[in-house]
Amino acid sequence: MMSRAALLVAAWLSIAGCQHQTVRDGSGQDATGNLGSPLVHRSPADIYIELSAAYLQEGRLEEAFKNAQKAAIVDPSSSNAHYMLALVQQRLGQTGAAEQAFVKAVSLDPRNPVALNAYGSFLCSQEKYPEADEQFRRALNNPLYNTPWLASHNAGSCIERSGDSDRAERDYRNALQLNPGFAPSLLAMARISVEQGNYLSARAYLQRYAEVAEHTAESLWLGVRTENQLGDADLMASYRLKLRAKFPDSDEAKYLQSIE
User: Fold this and answer.
1) Which of 35, 37, 148, 183 could cross-link 213 (Cys pair, CB 3.0–4.6 Å)?
2) 117 and 200: one domain?
3) What is residue 41's predicted lDDT score, i.e. its pLDDT?
4) What is d(CA 225, CA 228) in angstroms, rounded to the nearest whole number?
């Protein structure tokens, strides 16, 4: 399963090749009313943003940082340039600088959904849950956001982290309505279903998860717990064997002793 940082970078890469698909009316204004979509304007910074995103995805942080800096220099008015710089600085552990860059990105384009989603994730990592939720909702309010399930999932994850699994469930379900095969939300719903004792639901989510992603230690452990409750000894044994074989040193593998 992709990490949150990888998902954010992938979101940028997914839109980078689509930026010429802008619909404009005869007056020269955006036909959308300038909703702050990353697809609206080409910038001389874009090539550096795309390079930075690619380097960041590969873990080459020095090159990612240099290109993000170049992006912000060649076009200081680019919201996406500052967004990418913020992502790299966050990965480098430069928390203060990252926050400044996120604030700059969303101030330059208050309806940039990719930057808003990333800023929300950053605020959540700082345990600023209400502020984070505000950014996710702003991202979701933009009808041009082409990957809204990311913000919906991140909103759910942040709310769950704050201790409200009921509200989190609504956001995970919304993410799956938008993208039924989104693996992180499928896994999250399996986890919540187990916590609620809805084991048939958990089984269904885990089956859907296995169709779109490789099992993790968490998903296999959820499978063990689910099938232990539902009484399918063969399926439980299958999950258990995979957990021990693939993740022998994980905490989840150690938990197996509690049900043996």
Assistant:
1) 183
2) no
3) 62
4) 5
